[in-house]
């Protein structure tokens, strides 16, 4: 993936999913959206019509057994009742400049069957087509409900702590700063931070993780999670109607409207395919009688069968149905993917680039050494902690937390400035304070031999070193240590089992990076500034995935073929990258790739099923071996097969683990 660093991002279409041929897509999608948990399919207008036609067809079949001479009239009535809304829809599409929709093909086939005296087959055409439409709607609604059901997990009310006591309010009305009480066993009503208490919290609705997590003072909790054995007091950090569950649902809804390359290709194909089917059917009806003297009735019958075989419904349904199911399956497991195009890119990934801090490591850095060089240890920690308090980087947060834990009072900072990968600076009083990496500090002021030797010794111990400069002079060193994630070995082995190359990219020093990555057998590229990390991501491609924390890796996340943010649900993690792991565990990266590969296999299988059945019955129909009944079953059967195949993606699976783990 060489070339200019100004290479454009991947195109991300925001068009709605096309679930059938042009002219019918919006109708089918709206039908699916009507199916909510409160509205069964048979209570919608289209569902009630399909049910009515099905009853009429059953009555016609019964009449054909009791009074065969009256059955054609019953079949004709069924055909007209079923075909009327389809014909009206076809006419509306023609007037709107979209004459080649599914409704056109089915209407022509059904009414044509009536004209040649095959009323029973005409009735079967519309009955199975309408039932097939309902099947598609139910399948789409099932995938949507698997995500929309998450929002229903948020409780309707919350107990808000006020000066006068406790007041019950609507959870949607909660605002940042309010305090809520959560009793044991209750669902947490809003995203927030624990103020009082300690408990275990079941976050499976968001992350798919079945093991409850311990949560105490200062730790984040999310709406919809189930509180365990202890009472909690939570400070609300986000509006009640904008919690993580609601934002996840909105992002998945947007992703369902972004069509993949396969969907766009099938859509373009169907626009040419349907007129071609109409032309082929016309030729099949006219040429044999005019050229070979064949019977008109036989030729018309075969032409009508050809119209039905040519219906591209199963073909254009197979791709979006699979993508919708994959999006829903991922969201239920805490794997948020922003559209079908991202799934296609994930399936092509060959190299995974991992950021070190917060991705490969736990981002729970601890200050191990404060080395005074020009000022006292307390002064170094106090000034560094004040400046680092203006940054969200894990290293900065660790230094600030250590300073506060030491009981130091952090002074006010003005003119704060962050230089990603280099330093954080600010003015304390009238003195400029810079907390920088050793490499960047050496560019600002000469580091003596003793300072360089002390830095080298700390780095040799696998520690990360920050140099504190006060007024342009070295005031001291602060060393920190991080620990690798406990699941890192399982995660990297799972990635290798998928045939992926794994590389660690970090701005940290080589010794600290190697100390973390070497036991896992990973390649390391260290001491990378953001722009160098970006160029390296390009050189690793094509097919490169960048996994970072969504904050300091934004350029690399954007430049990679797929950017994955491990943010644990933060705004930046959800918005920056192509995909996000709501459960901040590295094993989710392999699960993402495995899900994407399953989705693409399902798409290819659906296309093969649709085209294979069409080709088979096209040949047998033109040869006169099969007729309308087989054509109807081929169309409806293909639709049922691709729908069922797509729904298989909703089954919970994980990436293969080495050694059966």
UniProtKB/TrEMBL annotation:
The keyword Nucleotide-binding applies. Keywords: ATP-binding, Cell membrane, Coiled coil, Membrane, Metal-binding, Nucleotide-binding, Translocase, Transmembrane, Transmembrane helix. It comes from the Bacteria. The chain crosses the membrane at residues 50-67, 105-132, 273-291, 303-329, 607-632. One of its GO terms (cellular component) is plasma membrane. Signal peptide: none annotated. Residues 1-31 are annotated as: Disordered. Its main location: membrane. One of its GO terms (molecular function) is ATP hydrolysis activity. InterPro entries: ATPase_P-typ_cyto_dom_N, ATPase_P-typ_TM_dom_sf, ATPase_P-typ_transduc_dom_A_sf, ATPase_P-type_domA, Cation_Transport_ATPase_IB, HAD-like_sf, HAD_sf, P-typ_ATPase_IB. Pfam families: E1-E2_ATPase, Hydrolase. It is found in: Cell membrane; Membrane. Residues 153-252 form the P-type ATPase A domain. Residues 7-17 have a biased composition (Basic residues). Residues 245-272 form a coiled coil. Belongs to the cation transport ATPase (P-type) (TC 3.A.3) family. Type IB subfamily. This is Heavy metal translocating P-type ATPase. It comes from Truepera radiovictrix (strain DSM 17093 / CIP 108686 / LMG 22925 / RQ-24).
